[in-house]
Design goal:
The chain is of the alpha+beta class and 361 residues long. It has 13 helices and 19 strands. It has a four-stranded antiparallel sheet. A hairpin with a 4-residue loop joins β8 and β9. α3 crosses α5, α3 crosses α9 and α5 runs parallel beside α9. It is globular, with a radius of gyration of 21 Å. The two termini are 41 Å apart. The mean pLDDT is 95.
Length: 361
């Protein structure tokens, strides 16, 4: 199977000419197959693993075709899982966090519920293009037939849990906070936001669950194919950003900077004060805490691009050239937004000389 992605994604065009960024859903399934095959060949005793959870790329969505759940218990343990995915998806390519083609759906969502401030106060964020609610609204607008054929919508995190569980897994509170669909205070889907995105959407989303929920035992497919114990628990998976907070064991007053595919700054708060800039998410570890976060889309992918264009391609040469540059670079600076940035809302490359005059190159 060849996915023909670049940097893990596919870039295409919407009917209106806007760029769309997706990932083949089955690619993630094949990645899981490869990972488990490597673990099986190692000396790790898979039969002694007592629980499995996971971290999934936030905002990405998976659309299960009507009747897909019937096939979960019929997977052949003698074949890789990705080879048995034919007919299980109503949409083959999953929208991912890099996509910014849903501006019209974002504005419609905000207008439908009473404005951006209302969306912020309920969901913790204003309507953002990469968030799952606007992405579902775009799918309904462009591909109503595909939406109608969908019986369940998963996030990447609950998709992984679904594979291991062999049944649909609920979306956890923390990852659901990045959808523009959940009331972060009541930790339930908000009916106004749901109705603004697509009809009968609540029926395609199971009630969100606490991030520490034990969803059930591992599917017999993984026991028979890889030797996992039938008593292995599957715990709700969450998004990559909430996982960072959990992994750093942050406490109120701590601040963390994460330099990843996107760059984030986040902290633990006990009294959420959502604003038009940034995000408030439910905590992945404590029911009465929240995660305050700023997210910058142009992170490591852009740094790698600059490394390849300005050095011999190695981080060592990148560091040498950086060290040879005087601190402050004599006032010359550049702002690089290859992708539509989140904070600030900007796009393009902007260079300035020491007198703050714009440079053409």
């Amino acid at each position: 199977m060849r996915c023909r992605t670049q940097g893990g994604v596919c870039r295409g065009k919407r009917p209106n000419g806007e760029e769309c960024i997706t990932a083949p859903t089955v690619m993630w399934v094949k990645a899981l197959d490869l990972l488990l095959q490597k673990l099986q060949r190692s000396e790790i005793p898979l039969n002694k693993i007592v629980a499995i959870s996971g971290s999934g790329q936030q905002h990405g969505s998976v659309f299960w075709k009507s009747g897909a759940s019937v096939a979960f218990g019929k997977h052949n343990p003698f074949k890789p899982l990705h080879e048995q995915f034919t007919g299980l998806l109503s949409v083959a390519d999953s929208p991912v966090w890099m996509d910014s083609s849903t501006t019209a759906q974002c504005r419609k969502l905000e207008e439908s519920v009473g404005g951006a401030e209302v969306v912020v106060s309920v969901t913790g964020s204003r309507a953002y293009e990469r968030f799952t609610g606007p992405q579902i609204a775009r799918l309904y607008a462009d591909n109503e037939e595909g939406y109608d054929a969908t019986e369940r919508i998963s996030l990447v995190s609950s998709f992984v849990a679904t594979l291991f569980l062999g049944a649909y897994a609920a979306i956890d509170w923390a990852d659901a906070s990045g959808m523009n669909l959940m009331d972060i205070h009541r930790k339930h889907w908000d009916s106004n936001c749901l109705n603004a995105c697509a009809p009968q959407l609540k029926h395609r989303l199971e009630k969100p669950c606490p991030p520490w929920t034990v969803l059930g035992k591992i599917s017999k497919y993984f026991c028979q194919r890889y030797g996992f114990s039938k008593d292995c628990d599957i715990v709700a998976c969450t998004g990559d950003n909430p996982s960072s907070l959990a992994g750093m064991n942050l406490r109120a007053g701590d601040l963390c900077i994460s330099l990843g595919t996107s760059d984030t700054v986040f902290a633990v708060v006990t009294t959420p004060r959502p604003s038009l800039e940034g995000h408030i998410l439910c905590s992945p570890v404590k029911e009465d805490e929240y995660m305050a976060m700023l997210c910058f889309k142009n992170g490591s992918l852009l740094r790698e691009k600059i490394r390849l264009g300005c050095t011999d391609g190695t981080w060592e040469d990148f560091e040498r050239k950086l060290n040879d540059t005087p601190a402050g670079n004599e006032g010359i600076m550049g702002l690089f937004f290859d992708e539509q940035e989140i904070v600030p809302h900007a796009h393009g490359i902007h260079r300035f000389d020491g007198n703050d005059e714009a440079l053409s190159e």
